[in-house]
Amino acid sequence: SPLIVMPDADPEKVARAAAASGYSNAGQVCIxxxxxxxxxxxxGDFLDAFQAEVAQISTGDPxxxxxxxxxxxxxxxxxxxxxxxxxxxxxxAELLTGGEKQDQFVTPAILANVKxxxxxxxxxxxxxxxxxxxxxxxxxxxxxxxxTNYGLSAAIFTQNVDWAMxxxxxxxxxxxxxxxxxQWRADLMPYGGVKESGMGKEGPKYAIEEMTxxxxxxxxxxx
Length: 223
Prior knowledge:
Number of domains: 1
CATH superfamily: Aldehyde Dehydrogenase, Chain A, domain 2
């Protein structure tokens, strides 16, 4: 899921949200933050804050006190994530931290200078790797956020209402967060995606409506 960072955002607040949304359950969540799209004026400050935040994430046995991130579901998935990271580096991305594989574990990775065509950006990673891309303005950020086959969750950090409303109107996603990470949902609200991120909505009321076929019956009375 994409997270847009505009120049008026607080980089430390965004870093905390990106870390929480990007590495919870080792990134194995369908609404994990996978792509951070940062305005050029805040790009450097955000990366500094993000690296400091991710440095605090300890990887290991989740039953051990102090562990903040556990293993991948299978070693094959850990291998895939590590390979995608190395492939991105070979294609010009910069690995700032993490990406080390041992058995089913991959340490939380941050990649800078990520290009939209890299697997780490355009395919679903489903692992502890977040790519960061620099943009010049809100239009470029939205275009990049929409440059995907998926559309389940997206987020923006800004204090500018015009930018926030433009994001809400133009980003192709079923769930849109303003000043919060992509990993947020409320079961009473309609939850679902667009494009290849599913059909219909979850949530009690909306799920019932989705799975109910409306019928029309008219009684024509004599008289």
